Amino acid sequence: MHNSRLEAATALFIRRWGEMGASWGISRTMAEIHALLFLTTEPLCTDDIMERLQVSRGSASTNLRQLVNWGLIYRVHQRGDRKEYFEAEHDVWQMFEIITRERSRREVQPIVETIEKCLEMISQDGDAETTPRAEAARRRMAAMHDFFSTMNRLFNLMVKVGPRGLSPMTRAIEKLQRLA
Amino acid sequence: MHNSRLEAATALFIRRWGEMGASWGISRTMAEIHALLFLTTEPLCTDDIMERLQVSRGSASTNLRQLVNWGLIYRVHQRGDRKEYFEAEHDVWQMFEIITRERSRREVQPIVETIEKCLEMISQDGDAETTPRAEAARRRMAAMHDFFSTMNRLFNLMVKVGPRGLSPMTRAIEKLQRLA
DNA sequence: CAATAGTTTCAATGACGATTGAAAGATTCC
DNA sequence: GGAATCTTTCAATCGTCATTGAAACTATTG
Question: Domain tally for chain A?
């Protein structure tokens, strides 16, 4: 490997991807491993990753497992080799779907359920006089709930139309907007 | 205040909002303060927040400043009172716009710029023979770049149609999808 | 079945960001 | 101006979460 520009570009991308991950609540190393595998054509083994990213075996193992768990990378086996190799999901659209769906399931579902519970709790007071205070809180929680369900529907729609459809669709609506 | 169900619901919502924030890279306390102000009708002062959330004056001050910085809460003044009070942006849609725009500016713009830089770096090798390896990396980075710009356009569109428009629009497209 | 190769686990450690509280800095009031 | 009230700052501390590395575990090989 003597393609130094490619190496430099790869390193730069990996660093930034790691930083972005960190600020979105994903461990820097996990994001870096993901970036490395995303850019690399051939599958890599644990030792490759340890060397390229200078991390311990334990960390590599843990983070790889988590990435497999998310569905963002796959375990692959090389014929005639005992080692396990890893390969990333390379389709950006697929990645988006996976990440959004997982985060939704793990992190927004709980809050949606909580909101529902809260709404029940508040409206049980409704037998008595509803205080303005309670009514205001109820309305805001309801608005939040609506927001999440609209976003959820929109996401499902995006997944359905897919990347091929989304861009033209967006453009079409933009055009309609401009006319209106 | 004797509306115990409302209090319980509020506390529950705040706790969960804080947890969600934490897993999205926002400090738990900052998210909790935001939730408290979101649910409360009248503006609150620093001492109210310290008491309700059991945090120090320093922490309250810092987190409030950050929230003001994000544009998610406003400083308001009560006539005949020297204290500063805080009020949240109560419109959920507006909140979404603010959060998305800020996160985009702070956290996705840098990666987009990095991708552009990387693409340049790689294509400068293009004078020489482009290795398959470099070509694969280039293609993936380009796909990622496309993804971000599509998402950006979609976001602008959503903001333009607004909440009133989005839900019907989504439904309309869903219907078209079902027919196709 | 023992030896070898590879992977996972987990207690200890480390790094980093958040929080605290007291001191310094503003602002308003008389 | 200076006393009173409120806010911000920041060095020290605390808590949390990721990482380390060695030991335990699993799976292949001859």
Answer: 2
Backbone angles phi, psi at A71, to 5 degrees: 90, 15
A vs B: CB pairs below 8 A: 169
pLDDT of residue A48: 97
> Which residue stretches of chain B have pLDDT < 70?
1-2, 125-129
B56 CB closer than 7 A to any strand C atom:
yes
**What would the pLDDT profile of A127-150 be if each residue is shown by its tens digit?**
556 788 899 999 999 999 999 999
Domain that holds residue A107: 92-179
Say which CATH number the domain at B40 has. 1.10.10.10
The C-alpha torsion from A139 through A145 and A149 to A154, rounded to 10°, is 80
Residues with pLDDT less than 70, chain A = 1-2, 125-129
Cβ proximity of A72 and A18 under 8 Å: no
Distance CA A55, CA A121 (A): 49
How much is the pLDDT for B18? Answer: 98
Same domain assignment for residues A117 and A72: no
HSE-CB for A90 with a 13 A CA cutoff: 15
From the CA of B58 to the C1' of D11: give the distance in Å.
Answer: 13
Are residues B175 and B96 part of one domain?
Answer: yes
Final residue belonging to a domain, choices B63, B88, B113: B88
H runs (alpha helix) in chain B: 4-23, 28-39, 46-53, 57-70, 92-103, 109-123, 132-179
Return the SS3 of A84. strand
- Closest approach of A120 to chain B, Cα-based (Å): 9
| Residues B55, B33: Cα–Cα separation, whole Å | 10
